[in-house]
Amino acid sequence: MEAEGQNEDDSILNIVDVEEFIIQMKLHENHILLDVRLWLEYKRGRLPCAILAENSKVLLSIADTLDRDKPLFLYCADNFRSKAAGRSLAEHGFNNIYILDVGFNGWKASGKEIDKTRPKISKHQIKKSII
Fold this sequence. Notes:
alpha/beta; 5-stranded parallel beta sheet
């Protein structure tokens, strides 16, 4: 029986704690850091250099531009959405995926750096606000 919130496909994901997340990002200098929360959450604060991928369409659009071997680091508020996003990326051929086990909330609680600068609005956000 699987633990709550776990999926047998999670074995292809590297679900790591805050310290290991930082270590792995440093070891993989060419990584991509993806925030899979909503725009409202993202604009309130995010990990430095994170790219917003607030839904599967945006996530896969970003993924389509990347080498499948590129290390991807994902987080959401806790880890539910990031695991789902990670599984989706794995299904699309990515094999070097790291998930922050405690999400943004745990990152913030651990006292790690948070970017609270006003984010630039992307073309996606402008289009979304017009519709």
